[in-house]
Amino acid sequence: MRGRDAIIIGGGFYGLRIALHLRQKLGFRSVLVLEREPQVMQRASYVNQARVHNGYHYPRSILTAYRSRVNLPYFLTEFADAIVDNFDHYYAIASRLSRTNGRQFELFCDRIGATYEPAEPRAMNWFNPQMVESVYLVTEPAFNSVTLRSILLDRIAAVGGISVSTSDEAFHVEQAGSALSVHSSTGIHKAEVVISATYSRLNDLHRSSQVAVIPVQHELTEMALVELESPFAESGITVMDGPFFSLMPYPDRGMHTLSHVRYTPHHRWRESGTEPFSPRPSTELESLPEKSRFREMYADVLRYVPALATMRQVDSLWEVKTVLTKSDKDDSRPILFKPDHGLKNLTTIMGGKLDNVYDVLDELSSYYA
Ligand SMILES: Cc1cc2nc3c(=O)[nH]c(=O)nc-3n(C[C@H](O)[C@H](O)[C@H](O)COP(=O)(O)OP(=O)(O)OC[C@H]3O[C@@H](n4cnc5c(N)ncnc54)[C@H](O)[C@@H]3O)c2cc1C
């Protein structure tokens, strides 16, 4: 496929990183990235928990945990300037309702080769001993998504041959002889290869292009942006493994995100193409719930870590989170890679988390080499 042109629909982390891969590794002549927002990386690649996964989060899916371990070093090396590791990250195991216990968590970490150590007494004392059975200090950094965007845009400018067109929505894709044409806000664009990296909106494009809907599950999510006092300001806390909370540094705003398995999703819905009505991710984001769920999250946090009472909500971040339907049960994050999806050379991809990008790049290399 050397010397070909490609259009990538979606200028999130995936779309930009794939554009570089097509140009630098797969010899594509030119790549056009279409992004509907006025700026790239404004959607899920900005609104997320900023965790560079090292596997700990997935005790129910050994494959996802293992792939996180494999991909982490690549991500840390490639995006070193965006990595934030100046905080202590604790994973606490809840004594009730957790699907794992301390011993199982240790065995799981040993199995995937992820380091951990018992939290020091100072940190242990933060937790309510009736609610938490064990606490571990782990190695799992965060990323700054704005720095990530700068790194990618600088590389795109340096490589050449990649145009990024913002405020440019792709409406549909159709066959045009041996090529594909993409109808967008700025006109009709043609290329041999089209890659859809539209994340939560993947099926909007599939519907308008009259190709099959891919079964996914969406959640309208709210993460509270909170200010914490020391020593929590220099820490991350994740309570495992069930309906608990997580506090992660959110480097771009110099605060933390507070998310909660029970309260962060305001509602969830499946999209399989067979429902009589399926809400569109775009319309859900345009009509947000009036009420933040911060109070509910906060009340639950205090049951586990009473000293977090001084936490203050500053804002909330909203986004539609999309996972493959099969991820529902085991909380896994496999990639979606669908080449020739309904149209020859239309490839739809979706990565459940940022570091999965390397699995997607491997698939692209095999397919378009
Ligand atoms: C609440 C939440 C927390 C998360 N936490 C983490 C975490 O801690 N760590 C982690 O690794 N991952 C996390 N994730 C997952 C991660 O954010 C996503 O896997 C990743 O951002 C997906 O990147 P993307 O480029 O595919 O999606 P996006 O960044 O959403 O990019 C898709 C782009 O396509 C554009 N687009 C859509 N349709 C069209 C169209 N028709 N025409 C033109 N442009 C279009 C959109 O505007 C968007 O910019 C989280 C996600 C959410 C929602």
Automatic annotation (TrEMBL):
A Pfam match: DAO
InterPro entries: FAD-dep_OxRdtase (IPR006076), FAD/NAD-bd_sf (IPR036188)
FAD dependent oxidoreductase domain segment(s): 5-318
Domain of life: Bacteria
Identification of the protein by name: FAD-binding oxidoreductase
